[in-house]
Amino acid sequence: MSKRIEFGDFQTPAELSEFVVNLVGEIFGTPDVVIEPTCGVGAFLAAAVQQWGSATKCLGYEINPVYVEQAQGLSGSNDVCIEQADFFTVDWRNIFHKQQNAKVLILGNPPWVTNSKLGVLEGTNLPEKTNFQRHRGFDAKTGKSNFDISEWMLIKLIENMPPTGALAMLCKTSTARKVLRQFWKNNRGFEKAYMFMIDAKTYFSASVDACLLYVSGHSLTNECTVYPSLSLAKPNARFGYVNGDLVADMDAFTSTRYLDQGTTTYVWRSGIKHDAAKIMELDVTPRGFVNGLGELVHIEKNFVYPLLKSSDIGNGRTLPRKFVIVPQKSAGDETAIIQSVVPLTWQYLMDHAEILDNRKSSIYKGRPRFSIFGIGDYSFAPWKIAISGLYKKIRFVLVGPFEDKPVMVDDTCYMIPCYSEEEGRLLLELLKSGDATTFFNSLVFEDSKRPITAEILKRFSFISAAKSIGLLGGLRRFVYDDASSNGSARQLMLLMERDETYLTT
To answer: CA-to-CA distance for 17 and 298, rounded, in angstroms?
Structure first.
C-alpha cells in the first residue's frame, strides 16, 4: 500500500476520464497534442483517442513500467506514444518547447499526496527539496512548508506551458487554489480559470474536496469561476486574489471591501503550541490534576493556567475545563529556573522528559528544555478576543480571567489580548457587526483544513468597522484613556493621529 501511496497510484475511472475530456473539448476545442505527464494505465489518453481520434497526437509519461506496458496497448497507430519516465527528472521545458506552435492540452490526474506524508513513508518519489513557496522563518519550519506533490507538479507544468496551451488536471480543491494563488501572487493571471467540482468519494473512495482545474491563456484577471459539477451550465461562485491574498466569495467581498484595510491596529496571535498534550494538559478531577496518561499529577500551581481548546472556542464555551503547564513567559526563556522555584513541576517534567525531548517539530531544536511556542506578554493579558481556526463558522468570543488567572488558548486558536473588559466588549461588537460577518465569510474557504487563519483575521480594519457603525468616537476615547498602559491602544492612537480622517465620526 505504501508504494501505491508514494506514487499516487489511484487510477482515474474511464467514466470520469470521458466526462473530463468531453468538457475540456467544449472549452478548448480539438487539441493538436495531448500530454499526460503521469498517465498510469492511460485512462485519459484512451478518452482522448476516443474523442478526437487521429486529429490529436497523444503523449504519455509514466514511471511504473507495468503501467507503461498496459498503456502502450491503447493504439496500434503512431497517434499514441507512451514513455517510461520520472516526472521529476523530465525536461518539461524542452518537451513543451517542441510544441510551441501547437494547440497543446496538458491533461491528467497527478498524485494526491503531500511531501510530509512521503517523508513518513521514506518515499523517494519527490521533487528536489527547495522552498519554492518562499516561506520564511517559523512558517518554513512548520505546516506551511508542507505541500501536495501535485501542487509542485502543476506549477512546473503551467510555468512551461505554451502560450496557446491549456491545462486540465484533477486535484484537491485546496491544491487548485494554492496553484492559482502562486501565479496570481506573482502577477500572472489566466484568460480562463475554472474549477469544476467532482465527487471524489464516488470516483476514488476518498473523503476530500476535489475538482478539475482548468487554466489557459494569459491575462491580468485574478479570478476563478467555480462550477458545482463537470458542466458549464451554472457557475455557483467566483473566488480571486485581492490585496495580497485569496478571497473566497468575490461578490460578498465587494460589498464589504471597505473593511479590508490590512492595518496592524490589533495583532492576532496564535495560542500555545507544545506538541505534548498528554503531558502538558491537565484535567481537574476530585482527586486533583490528571494528565492524558491517566496519571495523578502533584505539582505547584505557579506555572499552571486555565486552558480553552479549539472545540471550546468553536462552540462558544468560555469556562475552562482543562489546565496547561506554561513553563515560560516568552519563547526562548530559560526553563532551568523552574527547578528551584517549583521543584515538583520540574520533577514532573523530568519524569516525562523522554516524550518532551523527542517532540518531532524542528522548532524545538536548540531551544531551552521543555520549551513551548505561541507564548509572550500577550498570553497573560487578563481578557482576550478568541476564535477557533478549525471551525468554518465565524464565532468570536470574549474570554475573561478564571480563578484569578488569565486563560490560555491552544495553537489552533487565534486571539487578541485585551487589557480591560471594556476593551474586549468594544472589539467584540465590531467583530460581530453585520458587515464584519459578511466580510469574514467572504474570505473563508469552508473546505480548508484550517478555514480561519491569521492572514484572514489581520485583514479586518477595526477603525473602518467602528467608523461605519458610529463607534469611532467611543473607540477613540477608549484608546486615549488606555494608551498609557496598553500597547495595542498606543499603536491604535498613533495610527488614528496619523490619519486625521479617522477622527471624524
So the answer is: 62
**Pairing of β 304-308 and β 408-409:** parallel
Output the pLDDT for position 121: 32
pLDDT higher than threshold 70 for residue 77: no
How many whole angstroms separate alpha carbon 118 and alpha carbon 136? 22
Query: What are the tens digits of pLDDT across the range 204-254?
Result: 988 899 999 999 999 989 999 999 999 999 999 999 999 889 999 999 999
CA–CA distances in Å: residue 34 to residues 87, 109, 211, 334, 473: 16, 13, 20, 60, 63
Task: Note whether 126 and 118 are within 8 A (CB).
Answer: yes
**CA atoms of 119 and 254, how far apart (whole Å):** 42
Q: Is-contact 409 384, C-beta < 8 A?
A: yes
- One-letter amino acid for residue 408 of the chain: M
- CB–CB of 204/192 below 8 Å? no
Alpha-carbon distance of 383 to 318, in angstroms, equals 11
Of the given ranges (95-104, 176-185, 390-399, 428-437), which has the lowest mean pLDDT?
A: 95-104
**What pLDDT score does 140 carry?**
45
For the whole model, what pTM was predicted?
A: 0.82
Copy the grid coordinates of residue 313. Answer: 472556542
- Cα separation, 302 vs 317, in Å, equals 25
Question: Rounded CA gap, 107 and 215, in Å?
Answer: 11
Three cell numbers, residue 459: 485583514
Taking the C-alpha atoms of residue 340 and residue 348, their distance in angstroms, rounded to an integer, is 13
pLDDT of residue 187: 92
* More confident site: 5 or 56: 56
DSSP state of 13: P
Who contacts 155 (Cβ-Cβ below 8 Å, separation ≥6)? 132, 179, 182, 183
